[in-house]
Amino acid sequence: MIRLHKPIASLIVASLLLGACAAPVAAPQAPAAPAATEPPAAPAATQAPAAPSGEVVKAEPGKAVKMVLLPKFLGIAVFDQANQGAQEAHKELGNPEKLEFLGPTPENSVAGQIEIVTTAATQGVNAVMLSNNAGDQIVPAVKKAVEAGTKVVTWDSPIPSAEGESVFVAQVDFNETGKVMADMALSILGADGGKFAVLSASPDAANQNAWIAAMKEALKDPKYAKLELLDVVYGNDQSEESYKQALALVDKYPDMELIMAPTTVGIAAAAKAMTDEGLCDKVKVSGLGLPAEMVEYTKSGCAPEFALWSFVDLGYLTYYLTYLLATNQIEAKEGVKFKAGRMGEYTITKDPTREKGLRVLMGPFTVYNKDNVDK
Amino acid sequence: MKAITRAIRPEQLREITLAALIVVVVLFFSSQIQGYFSGRTFNRVTASVAIIAVVAVGQTLVVLTRNIDLSVGSIVGFSAYFVGTQLANDNTLSPAFAIALAIGLGALMGAINGALVAYGRVPAIIVTLGTLAIYRTILVDMSGAKTVVVDALPQWLKDLPRTNLIQIGELDIRLMFGLAVFVVLVFQLVLVYLRFGRRLYAIGSNPEAARNAGLPTQRIVFSAFVLCGALAGLAGFMFLARFGTITVVAGQGMELQSVAAVVVGGVNIFGGSGSMIGAFLGATLIDLLEQSLIRWLRVSEFWRDALLGLLILLAVASDAVILNRLRRIWAQDGVSVQGKPVE
């Protein structure tokens, strides 16, 4: 109980202090404990609830909020980049508490995430930023955490039912993903179009399915009339399976000219398979990929174009939103606007992909080709 | 009849059955998939089976002694990542050094498993389930979330997967497949002709009898684990060459794939019987089925795994039934049969 006590106490004190000063104050750089010795100058009631909708809330820096950034699992470059972004925002906002980057190991991802959420709640963490890999299995743990006063914000991958989650920070608009993929296909195959197939992660990955559905929708536009989607196959985000599936596509469809893989594992494995089998002249690879992993293939012409969003920005934006929510400067409500440091203004909206959820949309994509892939 | 029962043992018949099954699968899918019966299918399967075949050889050594190694997937990943990082940092490292490093690392991790199982007397399934997680965790911690990227690797490694050992018409025998076959044959000879190999069977058939007969069972079980780790390390090097992009999830799930190959290949999971050729054929059959099913338009993505599982069960069950029948025939003919008694 003592562990739970301290951060909450310091949080209350910090918010009281802030409520007392109308103008933005300089960040009190002192750690949380000394803050408790300063006399609260004003009654708690003056703390305004959330800003009325329509007004853009700018974060008051310097509040002590204990936060945990929880990726799907540790050891993956993109999650580390998200952590960089979150740490950058953490410094900017001068939060005297620690921002912890905690995650399970790959083989223990689902159970590990549930455990970390549970532990965070009992240890009095104020907010957990979660890239959910456990589907709705995580809901009971998240609900308990919320009851204990922990805010849960998701990023990268939401809680499907949205239960317990405050807001989801979506990396890109799912419809835009579909359009970006169709555009890249058209740009690679040329005005005459051609046949292509999709190599996805797993058949039950919500974001992958939404992207593919959005791409099918985009393909109805007469602009893409000459593109023909042959098949959708799944490599389960494993190098071995993706590699095999890519070659199977080549064997199945002799007139296929492009493999579109909206997964970083899939796109790298497909490009390697085409390179190893000397098929790059016939079949190109595109999709969503990491520049560092794709340099080799973009330069060789095997994967002339691919896209991705910035995970650093995703972490940064998630941190700002979570900080604002955890310090009660904003409420998780439709129409609430806030400023996320260097990234500008964002609005909380209904999530069109989930019935109950709220989301903040980051966007946009960066399209990489041989001119910018190694920068 | 006697002539046949004298000439071959039931275990060899099991291998023949597997080979026949492979032929049946090939014939069936040839009638289903256009352009299936070609050199291309051969090239696809051989290139893809090479890595798991090497892991399965190591797994067989351990399973023969009535143990199991569930940490092989983590060892493959660790060795692929570690060697990949060294090569990315210094492109001038020689291939021989890289391979030796991979094998050495694997052997070291295998030695930890072996010591705990053989001398610590902890059940293998517990030890290796623990080290599965431990090796992976060390890898995650060591990696600092960096990925080994193809761009940074030396050219010889990038070229390795497409290097042919020999080319016969449409058929490419890739260097990596050649290496896998070499490993299988060497260890098959070890099992048949070396004292070490025979002792593995003795320990697996009856550990107590083996101990009473004065066999150094602890040392032998320890060596089996070291060799299994070393082979997983070698497979890690092959994994690095084949996929290039290595993250901390590399090799995940290989422990179960290797156990599946071994079991389908007729190696008794309770130790004491089986062969390297069998394990190799088991790995080939599974990969062939998988590769065929993903090319067979009639099967939806969602049913593929279930169908693959069903076929594996069928293969094992029919194999067991046939083998039991055959053993009875052999027993009637009065030829001594190695391995488990007839039920």
Describe the structure.
- The complex is a heterodimer of chains A (375) and B (343).
- Chain A is α/β, with parallel strands linked by helices and 375 residues long.
- Chain A has helices at 2-20, 32-35, 77-92, 109-122, 139-147, 174-189, 206-219, 239-252, 264-276, 291-300, 311-326; strands at residues 56-58, 67-70, 99-101, 127-130, 151-155, 168-170, 194-200, 227-234, 256-261, 284-287, 306-308, 337-339, 345-350, 358-361, 366-368.
- The N and C termini of chain A lie far apart (49 Å).
- With 343 residues, chain B is an all-alpha fold.
- Chain B has a single domain, classed as Orthogonal Bundle (ABC transporter involved in vitamin B12 uptake, BtuC), CATH 1.10.3470.
- Chain B is built from 14 helices and two strands.
- In chain B, helix 9 (195-205) crosses helix 11 (217-243) and helix 12 packs across helix 13.
- The model of chain B is unreliable at 339-343 (pLDDT under 50).
Quick structural summary:
With 375 residues, chain A is an alpha/beta fold. Helix content of chain A is 39%, strand content 18%. At the A-B interface, α3, β8, α8, α9 and α10 of A face α3, α6 and α13 of B.
For the record, the count of structural domains of chain A works out to 2
Helix and strand composition category of chain B: mainly alpha
> How would you characterize the largest beta sheet of chain B?
2 strands, antiparallel
Structural class of the helix and strand makeup of chain A? alpha/beta
> How confident is the prediction overall: mean pLDDT of chain A?
85
| CATH fourth-tier homologous superfamily of the largest domain in chain A | Response regulator
What is the tally of beta strands of chain B?
Answer: 2
Rg value of chain B: 21 Å
